[in-house]
Amino acid sequence: MTDSHKSFETKTETKTKRRGNPNWVKGGKSPNEGGRPKMLPDLRAAARNYSGDALATLAKIMLDHEAPHSARVGAAREILDRGWGKAIQAVDVGVNLSVAESHANILMRLAEQARHKKEEASRVLELTVN
Predict the structure, then answer these.
(1) 3-state secondary structure labels for all residues of the chain
(2) Is the pTM of this model over 0.70?
(3) 54 and 76 in contact (C-beta within 8 Å)?
């Protein structure tokens, strides 16, 4: 067996190796039926109790132009995130409308062609019946 043949076998074996829970059988009962555990309600309530202080810290740091307070800002942000969730972020998808429009035009042409063929078929059927 050549070295290249051996490396091919190794690559094939790697691809068939299973990830995750080796005891789980596809189609069987999920080992994690409940899914990811939810945040504990008392942790959320405790974090919300510190929201005012966290906002005050952010405001104090924002107004203090002397030194960077990245550790304090990070802590305040984490408290707010745990108490109120992360802020909504805008995402620019960069969709090219001309591509979407061309797809729509193709679909409309295909629908029109199908309608014409259906009309032709019904005319032929009408002629053969009469």
Answers:
(1) CCHHHHHHHHHHHHHHCCCCCCCCCCCCCCCCCCCCCCCCHHHHHHHHHCHHHHHHHHHHHHHCCCCCCHHHHHHHHHHHHHHHCCCCCCCCCCCCHHHHHHHHHHHHHHHHHHHHHHHHHHHHHHHHHC
(2) no
(3) yes
Q: Which of 26, 37, 73 is nearest to 54 (CA)?
A: 73
pLDDT in tens, 76-123: 888 788 788 888 888 877 766 666 677 788 888 899 999 888 888 888
